[in-house]
Design brief:
Blueprint: E1 2-7, E2 13-18, E3 38-46, E4 49-56, E5 79-87, E6 97-98, H1 102-112, H2 121-124, H3 151-158, H4 163-221
Antiparallel strand pairs: 1-2, 1-5, 3-4, 4-5, 5-6
């Protein structure tokens, strides 16, 4: 029994055990009914092994394999599942086939892709240059970098008057103007009241002669 790697159409490598493995029947492990257009696409050397990829390069739209293959087949398009096998000689044959797992294929893949950078502590740690105290601002920045906050700026912030105070003063001035207008209205009302009282007194004076004439007529009749 041998182990090979099958890369599903969704792009997931999986280790599969095969009872009888041959080069000619490898297409069946990828669920293809025919061998048409199923062939070896690339071979890489890894330690004391050779690793080869077998895939089909024709198929229906929507059946493309989503896995990103390493160079030199990184720009080629394949359909359905892909088979990856290991062998002890450069040219694969039934007699040279050996076991391959998804873990080993991952290492081969990383090597073929140029290797992935492992960001360790040395890469993540940055050298922090110590700033002399006489060159530090209150906030800890370097004066040479231009991050200087002057004391004058801080005092201006403390003396800053919020915009609401201006609105309050404007409202007070409007209230004073309203009070002034109110006083003028009351003076006008008082003048009008005095004028009405004088008119009433004049009317009473005009009515007095009429009353006197009526009495005189009554006296004449007697």
């Amino acid at each position: 029994m041998r182990t090979i790697v099958i890369i599903t159409k969704q792009g997931t490598p999986k280790t599969e055990s095969v009872k009888s493995l041959t080069i000619d029947t490898l297409y069946k492990k990828c669920k293809f009914r025919k061998v048409d257009n199923f062939a070896k696409r690339a071979t890489w050397k890894y330690d004391n092994l050779w690793v080869s990829v077998y895939a089909r390069d024709t198929g229906r739209a929507g059946g493309e394999n989503k896995y990103d293959m390493p160079p030199p087949i990184d720009k080629d398009l394949y359909f359905g599942s892909i088979a990856v096998i290991a062998h002890t000689e450069e040219t694969p044959s039934d007699n040279t086939l050996t076991d391959l797992t998804a873990e080993t294929w991952k290492k081969v893949y990383e090597k073929c892709m140029g290797g992935f950078e492992d960001l360790g502590d040395e890469d993540t740690e940055e050298d922090v240059e110590e700033i002399p105290k006489h060159l530090q601002t209150k906030q800890g920045y370097s004066k040479e970098d231009g991050f200087v906050v002057s004391d004058g700026d801080e005092e201006e912030d403390e003396d800053y008057v919020p915009p609401d105070s201006d609105n309050d003063s404007d409202e007070e001035e409007e209230d004073d103007e309203d009070d002034a207008d109110y006083g003028e209205d009351t003076d006008q009302d008082e003048d009008e009241d005095e004028g009405e009282e004088e008119e009433e007194e004049d009317d009473e004076d005009e009515e007095d002669p009429g009353e006197g004439s009526e009495l005189s007529e009554e006296d004449y009749e007697y």
